[in-house]
Amino acid sequence: MCGIAGAVDLARGVHRAEVAPMVETMSCRGPDDEGLWLSSEGLRGDDGPSRAALGHRRLAVVDVPGGTQPMTLERGGETLLTLVFSGEVYNFRELRAELEGRGHAFRTVSDTEVVLVGWLEWGSGVVERLNGMFAFAIWDTRSEELFLVRDRMGVKPLYWYPTPDGVLFGSEPKAILAHPRSEAVLDLDGLRELLSHVKTPEHGIYRGMREVRPGSWVRVRREGTDVHRYWRLEALEHTDDRDTTVAHVRELLDDIVDRQLIADVPLCALLSGGLDSSAITALAAQKLRAQDAGPVRSFSVDFVGYEDAFAADPMRDTPDGPYVRELAEHVGADHTAITLANEDLTDPDARAAVLAARDVPVSIGDMDTSLYLLFKAIRRRSTVALSGESADEVFGGYRWFHDADAVNADTFPWMAATRQGPLDRSTDHLAPDLRARLDLAGYVDASYRDALAEVPHVDGVSAHERRMREVCHLHLTRFVQILLDRKDRMSMASGLEVRVPFCDHRLVQYVFNTPWALKTFDGREKSLLRAATRDLLPASIVDRVKSPYPSTQDPGYEKALRSSVAEVLADREAPVRELVDADALRAAVDAPQDGPSIDTDRARMESVLQIDAWLRRYRPTLAL
Fold first, then answer.
1. Does 28 participate in catalysis according to the annotation?
2. Active-site residue, from 2, 268, 472, 503
3. Cα(198)–Cα(447) distance, integer angstroms
4. pLDDT tens column, 521-536
5. For the whole model, what pTM was predicted?
């Protein structure tokens, strides 16, 4: 896992002094090493500006001594290809053996070199052979082309910023914004994207910036720039019966977890006591025992007094703690619970770190801060973590999958189901004239229509089955991107690699095409996953109702939040004041509270604080 950044300019050229700061912004993603490569040929055939510069910050996970980057491939004393790579390729050993059979030799045992040699052998076709999470840039000296490539599910981020004669690119927007030829401009479309919770493919928030779409590559060359999608979900008829389907899901999970345990550094599992993380932790424990590699190490997050004072809310019926302890004991895990207090969640440095990791003010408050602090604590003992993220999108686990009103609403189901919940993106706190110009309802509707148009269908199914295929596709192409981006940013801010086994494209493709009746054959959510892993888990966890990532219920957090917003409103120089309706915000701050709040007021206040901090720190140009 690493951070990459660089630039190509086929007319003016690029300079080391311009690209080095871009690479430095990725230091949190790669604390172990740094490298910067510039094409040796100057634009005038001398030592002047170069056509291409590729930079890398490394978090060493596989082949610690040998996998340094940028990595070049030379033949006959000439550099043919140069690569900077972020992520992991889980089938690199099989690919290496195949390439060796074709006569290629290797000087390292890293997955990065396998990608590099694979590109020499198969060109861009190598990406279709890769199983993993990755984002990489490869410069072909022979054709003077740059390719920017992203994994199928978009686990690893990659942004690009077209310039008149080339491109700037980076793992995060901050890398691109460190180059003098970029501009941090937020226009109405950017603000719409921030507030709408739709995650439009390729939208980079800042004007002119784009994100490489999952399952795509971007090619930059003299003739121009083109984008190619090498993978997308396909509609295939599912012919397996229930037992065969369950068995195949288990077979896939066994293979996926086995592959994702490969690391030359300490590895752990994230454990919440829910079905998803418990299944991954139990599978990892089983594999490690078989390898005589000791117990699985696991980590969870909790809050001071949370379990004792827990009150069920619309999103969570039970606290995680008892289930975490039961699973850890059941599999013999070496478990650590990271317990956070209010002062941790409201710590200005922690909140600033979250904003710096996000690049834009999209934080979901304490849930982002606690995740960052959890990962920071884990990093002291482990470098790699397995996560249960994305199981809900793959297997149909969210409550709104099973809510007829949300399913049949003419919009994104999660929006229909959470209008009064913590994911609500109401803009009542914004200035009325700005709200009118944003027309968020129109923006969301257009995004929804675009997303629906991409859904592949099979013939001869019921209207309900057709609709559930749409709902699943919306989650796998839109909603999951929001969560994957959050997990990547919070983990890499601490130099922790988080792997997501449920995003293996083989599993995603197979389960996507299973009929909804099979996904819910036992009358509940995630029937296939429950059946496939039942033998590994305690009955209490198998039967536990879905409970999302925890949010603090301590009234003290709410009080601190309201106090902070009041301070912003009292500051006549606060930059956010020109964007908000101060009277509406004051009413929200002064509203009486009988207990912990997860309603729209809390979401609004979190949003205002993040936007204000972002404007103060980054001073973007607002073109609203």
1. no
2. 2
3. 7
4. 999 999 999 999 999 9
5. 0.95
